[in-house]
């Protein structure tokens, strides 16, 4: 099931996305409005709205986004880094999250902002100290993410908080796909229609199960929390006016434009 979060006539709701559409369009897609929330038992209302008539929002509002750095060997290599012995974890605050079609505001304190296409894991229930064999049980589903990074700031400052946590640095969407095997998916990033990244989740150094175990050893994960699983090689700069799109096989495409921060 594809679960979207959307607004219409000033109201916010979740809905199940139904139908098929040509790439890059929402033609033919409708939302069956969900009674309740997707983190508990819910029913489809049967009330359907064309997707073209709503505004898609970030599919979840996470309490926290936990990013994992250098989880693709080729990406670590392209930036002159070794693959770490243990996963490198960092946070992106809830204020960094934006949805499909929202603008990425180029931060005034950086001159080198990069895209990073990533598979995002959405947690479905509260959990901690999750054993590896139960890791899939705590997952609601998967969505596309773009770990926007102020690369010059990341290299200059020992902590990554400002470089990866500024406002609008975490686009998520367009929806959460709940019925998906994430082990071998294509991840692609384009800028202004030109392919910049192309990788597969099979190239992850550490699996999604291993990441959930590692993170939940230290902290409680809440429904709606998001784990960013790392980016393939091919990261590079964005400029004001660019349109950046992340496409993940089996999920869809997340598109955002870069604007000057006002």
TrEMBL record:
InterPro entries: Fumarylacetoacetase-like_C, Fumarylacetoacetase_C_sf, Rv2993c-like_N. It is an enzyme of class 3 (hydrolase). Its EC number is 3.7.-.-. Keywords: Hydrolase, Metal-binding. One of its GO terms (molecular function) is hydrolase activity. Residues 1-59 form the Rv2993c-like N-terminal domain. Residues 64-258 form the Fumarylacetoacetase-like C-terminal domain. It comes from the Bacteria. PANTHER family: ACYLPYRUVASE, ACYLPYRUVASE FAHD1, MITOCHONDRIAL. This is Fumarylacetoacetate hydrolase family protein. The lineage of its organism: Bacteria, Bacillati, Actinomycetota, Actinomycetes, Kitasatosporales.
């Amino acid at each position: 099931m594809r679960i979207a979060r959307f607004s219409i006539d000033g109201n916010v709701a979740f809905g199940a996305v139904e139908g098929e559409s040509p790439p890059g369009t929402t033609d033919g897609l409708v939302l069956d409005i969900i009674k309740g929330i997707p983190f508990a038992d819910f029913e489809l209302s049967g009330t359907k709205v064309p997707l073209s008539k709503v505004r898609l929002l970030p599919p979840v509002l996470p309490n926290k986004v936990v990013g994992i750095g250098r989880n693709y060997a080729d990406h670590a290599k392209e930036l002159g880094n070794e693959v770490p012995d243990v996963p490198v974890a960092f946070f992106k605050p809830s204020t960094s999250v934006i949805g499909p079609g929202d603008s990425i505001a180029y931060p005034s304190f950086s001159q080198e902002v990069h895209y990073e296409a990533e598979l995002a894991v959405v947690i479905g229930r509260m959990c901690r100290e999750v054993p590896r064999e139960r890791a899939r049980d705590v997952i609601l589903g998967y969505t596309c993410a773009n770990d926007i990074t102020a690369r010059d700031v990341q290299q200059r400052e020992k902590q990554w908080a400002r470089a990866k946590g500024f406002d609008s640095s975490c686009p998520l969407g367009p929806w959460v796909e709940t019925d998906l095997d994430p082990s071998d998916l294509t991840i692609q990033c384009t800028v202004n229609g030109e392919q910049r990244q192309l990788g597969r989740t099979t190239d992850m150094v550490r699996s999604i199960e291993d990441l959930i175990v590692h993170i939940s050893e230290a902290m409680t994960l809440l429904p709606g929390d998001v784990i960013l699983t790392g980016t393939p090689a091919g990261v590079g700069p964005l400029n004001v006016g660019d349109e950046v799109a992340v496409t993940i096989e089996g999920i869809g495409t997340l598109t955002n434009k870069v604007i000057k921060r006002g």
